[in-house]
Structures are given as structure tokens and as C-alpha cells.
Structure prediction request, 513 residues.
Amino acid sequence: MVAGPGVGLEILQMVLEQGTETADVDYKSMLNLSQTRDKVELAKDVAAFQAVGGHIVIGVDGQGKPTGEMTPQMADLFDEARLRPMLLRYLPEPLQITSAVHTVEGKTVVLVHVHPHPDGFAVIPKVGNYPDPEDPKRQKSVFAEGDVFIRRGTESTKWRATDVAAVLARRDERIREETRKEFAAMVAALDSAGRGRGLAAAPALAFAWKVDADSFTSAVLELVRHNDRIPLRLFFSRAVGEARPQLSAEGPSPDLEVLLDRLAQTAGIALTVDDQPLFEQSMTTLRSIYRIGVGPDEYARPDLGTGAVKLWWSIISRIEAIGAAAVRAEAWSQIRTVTLQPPADGASRRPSAYVSWLRHGLTEAGRAGMLHGPTQNSLQPAALIHAARAVTHRLSALRLDYPDDSAYGSTEQPANDDMLLDSICQFDAAYCVIAHADKPNGSQFYPSFCGLYARRAEPMLIRLLDDASVYENLLPSFSEEQRTQAVAEVSRAARQEGWQINNRPYFFSDDRL
Prediction:
């Protein structure tokens, strides 16, 4: 399950819609924190979730349906001012949690978001026990001093030696990022006015992507400003070869994830400074890396399996974020380029069944069970939107027009004026219309935006009907009838899917939609 941070109503709906527990989502029918047993059991679960982060939902059954067992009085005890001190009786600092109480179908539901521990795990400093219900004179022990809990499947269990590598992966990535910063400092002396100036001035072969994100952004900007294209050409020419050994059946390595970030940053910079050749080079390189995992009939290569699917998901999450940046820059022709990238090259196989890698990546992720919908082949609504929002937050080069994104990840639901989230939804709507218009007889799109409020995506659909500067670039050579039909079909699919997701009408304010 891919979820955005926070505990707002949109997040709760997304967590409930998946209809099943996962490693990062736990459903509980009821918890009464006035009872020691429930306090201790919750502390154990929170400790386990600190390994990866996730959501605990209280007041629902195993399928995410509200039970009505949580009373308002019980819910009051989950107020953060009460919840955090209670948990700190058993758990160590730092402890970062957020919580909110919602009403779903007239029933009280509590959503708790547990943030990952900075060290990748939490060592419990105290004993946690409660009176045994079968023999109140005896204490039932849940955890002891020094215990470490993780999520194994849908259970919170003590870690084993075999779990250590996976648990520490997050911490290892932070260490690598610090090393990249040190490497950037060694490559060149970067002054405070431009951290990448020295790196950009280094010999062409010294320009490397294994530096921290800010240094890379600054270096690319310096190269573009001085029109020094050789280091960038070398970067693009080497990227695919460097990516190949970094992909395995386990998925992209941490270094490959960083390389994908750097290519996304380059695309974002190109959009900001209106550098079409740089943008096209970025997209061509991402497309070539995407195709590394493509096997017969556009399924994953047999030797890579779900590792290829994880690569595709990583790439389309960044593509959705790049497309959102193009929406805000009103770079309409680039939006069409971002969308119409088929997963197969067509040279050594039959023509691709997909007009867009976005639909291909979503479909294969759903087939692989990565999105944890109610059934194995179903797509988790808005998963791609939330993944792209996280990418946009992490990579400032994709939001140079919104440098302050500090409000992202707050305890409330996504802000009404979250323009970055709106632009992602609007790109998603544009991709759907472009893909359907290009091949109307196939299932070429999925409206991920329908997992969020319609008002976020609606402006793009309206502009595709009314704004010639938009539809002449996004849908060139298409008649007014074809354009109208494509917008109508995407709107219909969004309403239908939105109804199924939310069990209530999903409607646009414009009657044409």
C-alpha cells in the first residue's frame, strides 16, 4: 500500500479502501486506553511500526468496515496530548506520531500515523505487562527491556537476526546520503552562493550523480547557465549502463533510486528554464532505463520478476511528479511527451499494446499485488498520486516554483490549497485524456485522481474543453468531437471508479463532465 503521510479524511479513506491489513496498515475493532492491556498492546504495535512507518486504524473490522465499537469517550484518549505521554511510559524518544478522530458512516474511527524511527527501529526501555484475564494474580508479559519489534506481514513481532538487514536499510540510505554530501565537498569547494558551482566547473568526467540532491541541482543549473553541455551528455550516456547492474529481482538498488532522482531533477530544471533538449534527454534516458525490465509481451523479464515492476513503479512515480511540474509551468507540449512513452521499443517485438508507460506501470504493479487493493488485480486508488506527491516533496528541483513545502506531512488532511497535489491530479487527468484519445479502443488509462476530491483535477478537464492553448498542444490534430469524447470518457470513468471507491457520488461541478 502506498499512502501519503498524515491522518486527514482523504488518507483515512484511502487506508480503508484497500480492505485488508498489510505490513504498514493495521485494523483494530476497538481499543480502550483506560485499560492497561490495550495500552501495552498499542505500545507494542507502535514500536513495530517505527521500523517502517504506517497507519493504525481503530474502530474497523478486518476488511476496513466501521464496527461502531469505539465510543467518543474512548476516542478522546487518542488525542495527541494524551496519547504521546501514555506511549512514552513504554517507548523511548524520539517518538513521532499523529492522530485524528473521524466519523465514517456515522461511526467513530481513529487514525494513528506512526512515523519511522530515525535509527530504523526502537529499542524498548521498559517492561510491558498487564494482569492475565484468566488469572488476575499473574502478569502477562508483552515485551521486556531491550526488545525490538517489527512488522512481519500483518503481525507485530520481535525481530530476528534475519530481519536486521531489511530493518536497517532506511538508516543505511541516510548514511549514504551523508556520504554523497561529503563526496560533493571533496570534488569541489562549493561556495555558499551556489553549492554546485565548483562541481559544475570540475572536469567533465568528474561531474557525477552520486552527490546530494541540492549539490546536483545547483551543478546542473550552473552547467545550463554557462551552456556547458558536455558533462550533461556524458551523464546521460552513462546513466543506462550504470543502471543495469543496479537492478535485481529484489528491485532497484538504493543507488539506482538516487540515479532516477537525479534524472527527475534534471527534467524539472529543464522545465523551469524552458530547455527542451535537456528535457528530452532526461525523458529518453528514463525511458531507456524503464525498458531494461521489459520482457516478452511487455511483462517483466523472467530473471527480474517483481524487481522489474518495482523499477517501473519507481519511474512512473517520478514521471507523474515531472508531469505535475509541466502543468504548473504550462509546458503543454512536454506533457504530451511525458505521457506518450510506450514501454516497448517496437524494434525487436510487436508494437506496444500500451501508448503510455503510466498505464503499463500501474497495471503491472496491480498484477504484482504491490498496491494492496481488495483483490490482487485491483489498483489502490490514488496510490500513484500520493507516491508522486512524496517525490515532489523530496526533490526541490521539481518544485522550484514552490520552494517551501514544509507543510507537507502535517497532521491534517491534504490542505485545500495544496497546489502541488492539485497539479499532480491535473497531470493525471491530462494523461488519461491524451492516452484515451490516442487509442480510444483500448483500456489505456486509469484515473488515479478519482481517489481524491474531484475539484483537484477538474480544472484540467475544463481547460481541455475550453482553452485552445491547452488542447491544441495536448491533443493536436484531434477534432472537437474527438476531444470532447475523450474528456467525457475520462470523466465517466472517474465518476464510476470514484463511486465504487467512496460509496458515494463522485461529481464534478461542471455539468459537461
